[in-house]
Fold this protein.
Amino acid sequence: GTAKFFTLLLLLYRTSVKKAGKNTTGKNTVPSSEAGVDYITQEAAKQAALTHAGVLESDARGMETGFDYEHGTAVYELEWRVGRTEYSYEIDAVTGEVVRYETEYDD
């Protein structure tokens, strides 16, 4: 479903970053803030998503993060699992607000 499509997009993004030589540490590279625009940190985006979901960081497994532009808005993309539930979030990279979220239960 949608979660698999989101995961595919995230993997494609990571592959393109690696091919561009920007990912030499094995971690996602977040672009520096654009002129006059300050982005929140990836950690702040992660905390915003976890808080919105009501999930403790210690319970989240397989956390994946990325940075993208959705409809002209800079966003952090985050995915993780708790038990059999998968969470997908987009967090506005400027305001820290939740732009989109989805939970999917694997039965």
